[in-house]
Amino acid sequence: MWVMDAVLAVGGVCLVGALLFRPLDAGPVCAEPSPERVAPRPERAPVLPLEAYAAVYERDLQRPLYDPSPVPAPAAKPPPAPDLRLVGTVIEPDNTFALLRTRRGEVKWARIGEALEGAEVVEIESEAVTVRFKGVDHQLAIEKKESP
Fold this sequence. Notes:
Structural class: alpha+beta
Strand content: 15-25%
CATH topology of the domain at 85-141: SH3 type barrels
CATH class of the domain at 85-141: Mainly Beta
Number of helices: 2
């Protein structure tokens, strides 16, 4: 304990000695700084009337600081396709129709303008048929049988 007292006493004596016995050419302790070291004072902003700050007062302070990024729209689902398969077509001057396989495996025939399983036959060609299902046109090609 006495060591700590001695250290504090020596430190206090050194501090007092440094303040009292400093060199004479050091100048005053609280001298004014030289003009080249002083930064210029900024000009004061003009005082505006309170009406000028109305936009600040009216702002909703609980609103986020930025607008959130827009949520991307969900990808459009492809239109549903009819559950029909083209088996074949018959094209004759007065007797054109398509042979279509339904989801139950039945083969039925339909002419242009007739509907089958909710799909209306729009056009019949030699290798394909165009049907309109839920407002969207679908082209059905003839099923190819795999050879053994």
